[in-house]
Amino acid sequence: MNWTWFHRLGSPPHVYGFAARWAPWFGGAATLAIVIALYGGLVLAPEDYQQKDAFRMVYVHAPSAWLSLMAYSTMAVAAAVGLIWRMKVAHSAAAACAPIGAWFTVAALGTGMLWGKPMWGTYWVWDPRLTAELLLLFLYFGYMGLRAAIEDPQKADKASAVFAIVGVVNVPIIKFSVNWWNSLHQEATVMRMGKPTMNFDMLWPLLLMFVGFALYFAAVVLIRLRAELLRRERGASWVRGVLA
Amino acid sequence: MRSGAGAVARLVVERDLRLAFRKPSQLLQPLLFFMIVATLFPLTLTPELSRLRDAAPGVLWIGALLSSLLALEFLFRDDAQDGTLEQFALSGQSLTWMLFAKTCTHWLLSGLPLALTAPIAALALGVPADAIWSMVASLALGGFALSLLGAISAGLTLGARRGGVLLSLLTLPLSVPVLVFGADATQRAIAGAAIAPPMYMLGAIAVLGVTLAPLAAAAAVRIGLE
Amino acid sequence: MNEFFAMDGYGIYLWPSFALGIGVIVLNVILAWRSLAAAKLDARRRLEMQA
How far apart are CA C20 and CA C14, in angstroms? Predict the structure, then answer.
């Protein structure tokens, strides 16, 4: 098996170049997907039998929550790769994911509150999924706080990596809590064994939103990753070439 | 000099106990803090015992959590400053095992005494006498889990500025499951219901902690010592 | 059109919800770009100091 591609991933200038080239494409594709999905969800999709038009909030709430989880998982995997293979680029990638993930956790919580009020009558309940999502926000803050508090960049990388990995146990809890406990929050309708239980006209905008958010995440991570790489490699000669 | 695992653990435990008893104030402060926190609630909320009883599980467990955060300060701090942790890491013995021994001793010095003195606060908060021993058991088990989880964040914040605040920020999200199940156990005890389900969950968390936390703490300490 | 904005009466929850989502999306792009611009500026300055 040819592992050159993996080793190249360890080279900051190579990754920087990749990020610079691909970020705009991911961004463009993301914009297209999200715009089409928004139209599909807000205009084309029929209203729900029980929730009427309120169900349309799924098109912003579910992808935000999913992105908050995906960002943390990506961060934890990048952190683990950084620890195991001692790749600085991996640690930079983990650092890039954190602020994005934190913001989308806020978005998930906020949109969830706005959906909960009309549907459940309350902005908040302390049920397992919501509580665990709030904890996810605290884990992001802890990760970023730990990075900021340790002066030595290598120690900061490794310590925050350990913390990210320890905290990743929260991600499956968020995902599966609605199955394990009786919860006010509804069970999964899309990502489940067997076919999704949603009507296709309502489903395709949601799936397209997930795709759009994933592409968006890639684009923004690639921008932040470049910033991280520049910050760490300031003296290196490849930086000169990039800035010219 | 025997260097079997048991002998190493004994050395670590005996040393920690001896050092701890030279500074008894360090041991008493978390306990006093717990008592003060437990007292503040009746003063600020209501003196009515029946209403206090409803809040008691939360008050007791939040107090226990905050107290354990205070106690975590003395888990690694002194040893990091005087170079003992470095000696442990370089000794060729398993750092994981030594840190596990330290964490158990820490629990004996903080979590367990808290569990045993908690009845005073509990009775003051209106907890019925027949619920007391269940509460003590849950606090003891939960306290053990908290010491294990706290060792991870204590290890991670060894080299950090304002480590105390950061320590709390890192430990709190990890501690929430312990808090939730512990408070549930105390709540059930007060209501006279079976406490087995949350106790099993606390036990599961403690077992998970025993197997994984010392490893993570050792990794964290090594990073901090580099 | 008014029906569209009213969304069966749920409009006052739905539109702020989407505004929050889109706001976070746009904000993160802006923050990321600013972070990159600052890093480039910083790197340029360091190179000038070395030269």
Answer: 10
Domain boundaries defined on chain A: 22-243
Helix (H, G, I), strand (E, B) or coil at A48: strand
Q: Which residues of B touch A170 (CB under 8 A)?
A: 173
Query: Chain C: nearest CA to A125, how far in angstroms?
Result: 17
Is the pTM higher than 0.95? The answer reads no
Q: Which of B225, B179, B221 is nearest to B202 (CA)?
A: B179
Lowest mean pLDDT among A133-142, A162-171, B162-171, C3-12: C3-12
For chain A, which residues lie within 8 Å of any Cβ of chain B, measuring from their own Cβ?
131, 135, 138-139, 141-142, 145-146, 149-152, 154-155, 158-159, 162-163, 165-167, 170
A135 and B163: CB-CB below 8 Å? no
Which residues, including other chains, have CB under 8 Å from residue B131's CB and lie 6 or more apart?
B122, B186, B189, B190, B192
The residue with tokens 């990388």 is A157
Give, to the nearest 10 degrees, the angle between helix A153-167 and helix B132-156. 150
Answer yes or no: are the C-beta atoms of B69 and B144 closer than 8 Å.
no
* Contact criterion met (CB < 8 Å) for A152 and B159: yes
SS3 of A49, please?
coil
List, run by run, the mean pLDDT of 10-residue segments along chain A (244 residues): 78 90 95 94 84 87 95 96 93 97 96 90 84 92 93 92 93 80 65 63 91 97 95 79 74
Nearest of B69, B37, B70, B71 to residue B56 by alpha carbon: B37
SS3 of B11-76: HHHHHHHHHHHHCHHHHHHHHHHHHHHHHHHHHHCCCCHHHHHHHHHHHHHHHHHHHHHHHHHHHH
